[in-house]
Design brief:
The complex is a heterodimer of chains A (462) and B (407).
Chain A (H helix, E strand, L loop, with lengths): L1 H9 L2 H37 L1 H35 L15 H11 L10 H18 L17 H22 L3 H32 L4 H7 L13 H14 L11 H4 L9 H26 L9 H14 L12 H4 L1 H25 L5 H27 L1 H26 L5 H31 L1
Chain B lengths: L1 E8 L7 E8 L11 H6 L7 E5 L11 E7 L2 E8 L7 H6 L3 H8 L8 H15 L5 H29 L4 H21 L8 E2 L2 E2 L5 H26 L2 H7 L7 H6 L4 H6 L6 H4 L20 H25 L18 E8 L4 E8 L5 E7 L1 H6 L2 H4 L5 H11 L3 H5 L1
Antiparallel strand pairs in B: 1-2, 3-4, 4-5, 6-7, 8-9, 9-10
Helix pairs in contact in B: 3-4, 5-6, 5-12, 5-15, 6-7, 7-12, 12-15
């Protein structure tokens, strides 16, 4: 016993983690295999019978979980990009280039005191961040990330999106009212006035697009925009795109429309009295909202998961050229793992070490000062990069969903960058300018857009 | 502090609602109203709300408290409450000898310290009839104009920050840091320089200062213009500032405004030209003015002043004579009984010192005149009827420094 205790005491922290996790994982895996072998058929039957429920549970879990990396990534991007725009260094301590800092922020927020002011309406105060966060998460349900990769394809998807997005303001208003603080009250009222005003141009700007699309299902709208980028709705509805993006900025409470948390005026607005994870939820919701509104802009106007070009003619063209050059490699590899049998095992065993050695060799041979293990580490990393790239390329070509997800995330994070860019550049507008802009400019412009679109549809249609 | 009834669930049984008194902080003074104005201001009408801005608030540029009476977002009336930074500097100076008072001047104006030292040493020089060496006067003008540039850059950065722009303040700080570092090379400190002495300055220009200054001057104009371009051509910034806090020239003079704020209202009054001191008569520079008198004019006028200051620095460097930088004076100063008044043109307006000597080594009476205080008292004219956000604009464009206001 003492020998075991002494050996345990000598282990480093990673060693302890490994020696704890490996037995647990082994037991879990064994029991899972046993369960599948014993009850697999029956369980599959039950799950098959309730496919709707299974799909719902899986989608709900994934959507709840996916908000966390999205928010962390957005927070990190905001910190780093604004820092670079300000000629600062920004986060650079936790993780490579400070990438883990937002995770640390999340943990810090969890550990802070959860304080409720003495005069606050504690029930409303507690539930306000939940409402805001839930509203942000619910809008994710209808977003099509990639072909076949969406939680639910409603025929009223866009309507559902706006309805759920509008719920977020209820949480802000609740938080502002329940905090028992005048700054919070002003912030909550500002957010209510702002978001309700900007809902109207936001929704009206899309109506012209809906006339063209003939559907509210976001999935169908994306499918309509496939092919070359000229099919994207942004080229048929440029005014609507501009109105939509401005109104979306106001909806997400972002600079230059961040009056609800104007720190130089009303301290932190509705969030003044919040601390700990309740505050964290408000800001999670804000950053998830930035992602969601960027994603909706991409889905409606920029082709969603469609590439800006058609990949198939390109592949055919490459396929036509390669034999002429004497290369007969097929672009899509039809691997049958079962058919390979034992050679597959050897392949999996041999390729990584051989690849590592191959990439390590030039470094070791060409630089006499390099230690062999340094060369091996470099070779291993290079092999991983190249192999990962090849696998991604293969997945891109072979699976529609991977290609779609890459394009979708690329376009969406471009718009996230634009949001951050505006925050780094622009000052804040005043409340009367904000309201005047919505009612005097955006609303007439979106009505004009609707009128012109309807007229064009009637003229061209008849 | 008033109290209101509030119902809360009992900790033992959540179904039992307890009535307990919850402290509500209303910004109403705890004593009966002292004046009619106070009684009128603190009686809240229907639909009106008293709200505290400060003493600790992101936009108050220090420790200032402003009680606002709001109707929705509109400011009906407001009441600045001062004294949170009061140190009794004037009384401290009356108990220190003449040299020691100069060190008390720095924290009054912690953004542009030299402009509070300057009138003090000028007043003592008048009392003592000291001839300041010409090189010392040129060094005073040179360092003073550098300090003016750094102060204006900071004012422009904070102006943007109060309006919600995050970036310009950091760009301003790059230039300000250069200036502060080069001043630290001759004075030894970055903020509170304590550099001017009775009869000259403490130490001649050195090599590090000159090389840093040469580097900076070669790119100063382009840098300042590049920084300013981010804001002056920004539609949101211009619309937030135009026609906000408009001051007409007559009222500005009546309210004792000086400096850039007065010149932005169209009055070409600059102490450097109106009551020339030091070597300013020998230098060639313009007095920029603007007619509009709004926040935007005050912001743009500071940019013009920065350009004029750069001209003055250039001329100082070319015209500076050789010679001593400190007049020969006894260590213990006992000026003849009398009184002296000296004023200089600082980045915020007229800084002045009125000193009375009774023949001892300490001033008998010492009075500090600070422009920020006089600009602050115009809030009641500039802000009512506007929105909360406009108070931040007006406050930033007036550019007050709390150290001098509370003294």
């Amino acid at each position: 016993m003492t020998a075991v205790a002494r050996a345990w005491g000598r282990l480093t922290l990673p060693g302890k983690v490994v020696f704890t996790l490996v037995p647990i994982l082994a037991v879990l895996t064994a029991s899972l295999i046993a369960l599948i072998v014993l009850f697999g058929g029956a369980a599959l039957d039950i799950l098959n019978a309730n496919l709707g429920v299974v799909r719902f549970v899986a989608a709900a879990t994934v959507i709840l979980v996916i908000t966390i990396p999205i928010a962390f990534l957005n927070i990190y991007l905001e910190m780093k990009i604004i820092a670079l725009m300000n000629l600062r260094v920004g986060p650079d301590r936790v993780g490579p280039w400070g990438t883990a800092l937002s995770v640390v922020h999340g943990l810090k927020v969890l550990m802070k005191e959860d304080f409720t002011p003495s005069g606050a309406d504690s029930v409303v105060f507690t539930w306000a961040p939940v409402v805001t966060y839930a509203a942000a998460v619910l809008t994710l349900v209808v977003l099509p990330f990639a072909p076949g990769l969406y939680a639910q394809d409603f025929n009223i998807g866009l309507l559902f999106f706006f309805a759920m997005g509008g719920l977020g303001v209820v949480g802000l208003l609740m938080g502002g009212w329940a905090s028992f603080n005048k700054y919070s009250l002003l912030g909550g009222l500002r957010s209510a006035a702002q978001i309700i005003s900007y809902e109207i141009p936001l929704t009206l700007s899309v109506v012209g697009l809906l006339i063209l699309a003939g559907t509210m299902s976001l999935n169908t709208i994306v499918v309509q925009q496939d092919g070359w980028f000229a099919n994207w709705y942004v080229f048929r509805q440029p005014l609507a795109f501009v109105i939509f993006f401005i109104a979306a900025t106001a909806e997400a409470n972002r600079t230059p429309f961040d009056l609800t948390e104007a720190d130089s005026e009303i301290v932190a607005g509705f969030a003044t009295e919040y601390s700990g994870m309740r505050f964290g939820f408000f800001f999670f919701a804000e950053y998830v909202n930035v992602f969601i509104l960027s994603a909706l802009t991409v889905v409606l106007f920029l082709g969603g998961w469609n590439a800006p070009f058609e990949i198939d003619p390109l592949l055919d063209w490459i396929g036509g050229i390669l034999p002429g050059l004497g290369i007969t490699t097929p672009v899509t590899i039809a691997l049958d793992p079962g058919g390979l049998g034992l050679p597959l095992l050897f392949l999996l065993l041999l390729v990584p070490p051989l690849g590592t050695l191959l990439f390590a060799a030039p470094f070791f041979l060409l630089r006499s000062s390099m230690r062999w293990w340094v060369a091996l580490i470099i070779g291993f990393l290079l092999f991983n990069v190249v192999a990962g790239g090849l696998v991604m390329a293969w997945a891109y070509v072979s699976f529609e969903a991977v290609a779609g997800l890459l394009w979708f995330l690329g376009k969406t994070f471009f718009f996230v960058f634009v949001f951050v860019w505006m925050r780094g550049t622009l000052p804040r507008v005043r409340i009367d300018q904000l309201m005047g802009f919505a009612w005097k400019w955006l609303l007439p412009a979106s009505l004009l857009n609707l009128f012109v679109t309807a007229l064009a549809v009637v003229v061209v249609g008849s | 502090m008033t109290t209101t009834d509030h119902r809360r669930a009992s900790a033992d049984d959540p179904r039992v609602m307890l009535d307990e008194q919850v402290g509500v902080f209303e910004p109403i003074p705890p004593y009966p109203p002292r004046t009619e104005r106070e009684a009128e201001f603190y009686s809240v009408g229907d639909g009106e709300l008293l709200i505290n801005i400060g003493p600790h608030h992101p936009a108050t540029h220090g420790v200032m408290r402003v009680v606002m009476k709001l109707n929705g977002e509109t400011i009906v009336d407001l009441d600045p409450v001062l004294g949170y930074l009061h140190r009794g500097v004037e009384k401290l100076c009356e108990n220190a000898d003449f040299h020691q008072t100069i060190a008390y001047m720095d924290p009054l104006e912690y953004v542009s310290s030299l402009f509070c030292e300057w009138p003090a040493v000028m007043a003592y020089e008048k009392l003592l009839d000291v001839e300041v060496p010409r090189r010392a006067e040129y060094i005073r003008v040179l360092t003073g104009e550098l300090n003016r540039v750094s102060s204006h850059l900071l004012a422009m950065g904070f102006h943007a920050l109060d309006l919600g722009g995050l970036t310009p303040i950091l760009y301003s700080f790059i230039e300000r840091d250069e200036i502060v570092e080069m001043l630290a090379a001759i004075t030894g400190q970055r903020m509170l320089f304590n550099y001017f002495r009775i009869g000259g300055v403490n130490g001649d220009l050195n090599h590090e200062f000159m090389s840093r200054l040469g580097d900076w001057m070669s790119r100063a104009t382009e840098q300042v213009e590049a920084n300013v371009g981010l804001l002056s051509e920004n539609e949101i910034f211009v619309r937030r500032n135009r026609d906000i806090g408009v001051m007409d020239p007559e009222t500005a003079i009546k309210m004792c405004w000086t400096g850039p704020n007065l010149r932005a209202s169209g009055v070409p009054f600059d102490i450097r030209r109106a009551h020339p001191y030091s070597v300013y008569p020998e230098l060639d520079f313009d007095i920029p003015t603007r007619k509009e008198g709004d926040s935007l004019a005050r912001y743009l006028l500071r940019i013009d002043e920065v350009k004029q200051s750069l001209r003055i620095i250039d001329q100082c460097l070319h015209q500076m004579p050789d010679g001593p930088v400190l007049a020969k004076l006894p260590r213990l100063l006992r000026p003849r009984p009398g009184r002296a008044f000296a004023a200089v043109e600082g980045p915020r307006g007229e800084y002045a010192i009125y000193a009375v000597s009774d023949g001892t080594d300490q001033p008998f009476r010492f009075r500090i005149h600070d422009p920020s205080f006089l600009h602050l008292q115009s809030f009641g004219r500039l802000v009512p009827g506007k929105l909360i956000a406009d108070w931040m604009t007006v406050n930033a464009s007036l550019d007050p420094i709390m150290g001098g206001i509370d003294k």
